[in-house]
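FYI - complex with NAP, inputs then prediction.
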Amino acid sequence: MPSVSGQVVCVTGAGGYIASWIVKLLLEKGYTVRGTVRNPDDAKNGHLRELEGAKERLTLCRADLLDYQSLREAIKGCDGVFHTASPVTDDPEQMVEPAVIGTKNVINAAAEAKVRRMVFTSSIGAVYMDPNREPEKVVDESCWSDLEFCKNTKNWYCYGKAVAEKAAWDEAKEKGVDLVVINPVLVLGPLLQPTVNASILHILKYLTGSAKTYANSVQAYVHVKDVALAHVLIYETPSASGRYLCAESVLHRGEVVEILAKLFPEYPIPTKCSDETRPRAKAYKFTNQKLKDLGFEFTPVKQCLYETVKSLQEKGQIPLPTRNDEPIKIHY
Ligand SMILES: NC(=O)c1ccc[n+]([C@@H]2O[C@H](COP(=O)([O-])OP(=O)(O)OC[C@H]3O[C@@H](n4cnc5c(N)ncnc54)[C@H](OP(=O)(O)O)[C@@H]3O)[C@@H](O)[C@H]2O)c1
């Protein structure tokens, strides 16, 4: 990898939860960053200008995924692209077209700019939604979600991400773009942006009292800083190729609320499962070996949950504990 000084990279959807962390790490490493946002004047993107190195090396460019010219302008002259922008919703109209057309647009703009490499933020949603997978099968980079199943279950987010990733591979091959893909599981950890994004709501609802019970289901988790570090690592590692599953561990919701209640007993964390009739859902097996083979180390999920809650406190999203005793200690 040549010195990053003077290297220009574009990050799409720069103000988002994961992208903000990618921008932060890239600036810290010395890259010059062009971040695309839909509205550079929106206060919700203000945190980007406060990042270390932003004054000297960050430009915010107005771009929409469905506006090819805007992407072309942002990516022109870049050495690399991190395509992280995507709607995150189960509304089919808002999800599918921007995810799929937007990804093709970014690849075409990257091809025109002759970038060295493009990293695309896909999702576990493009990997594991397959009702025919054997329960003992280890989920790895060879797995793909079943599109018919996603459609029939109205899981439009997973459908959109899977179709977008497939389109990315096809378009990159046709246009000769060096594409590497990352498939994160549910992302938690400190927020840089002022607003709460969808994956953080997954935890917030257990702290505010809005969830009275927890579901009988499992979920894989990963720390947001790890996700951003993995993006940069696969961008910088010439031998990196294909897809990279980015996951630390799978927990049942019962385990999540138990960890939260131990660390933060002040909050009204649910203690009852919404489904006490069926057997407890089992964690699926997965491998994160491909990233580990690049020397990558994951943050433990307990630390990730702890940092998420601390960040929500700092952002004023949940009240600070009012206990007079010792400050909360974490043991992991
Ligand atoms: N968080 C997770 O658990 C998770 C897990 C796996 C994969 N991912 C993937 O990671 C990426 C980032 O997710 P996130 O959690 O960071 O979500 P986020 O905070 O909601 O960020 C999404 C970003 O995409 C931008 N965007 C949406 N539609 C756009 C459009 N039509 N044109 C331009 N920009 C658009 C948004 O811009 P505005 O601010 O203008 O709306 C926002 O900056 C997505 O591709 C998502 O599928 C996330």
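Residues 13, 15-19, 37-38, 64-66, 84-88, 98, 102, 121, 123, 161, 184, 186-187, 197, 199 surround NAP (CB under 6 Å). The first helix runs from residue 17 to 29.
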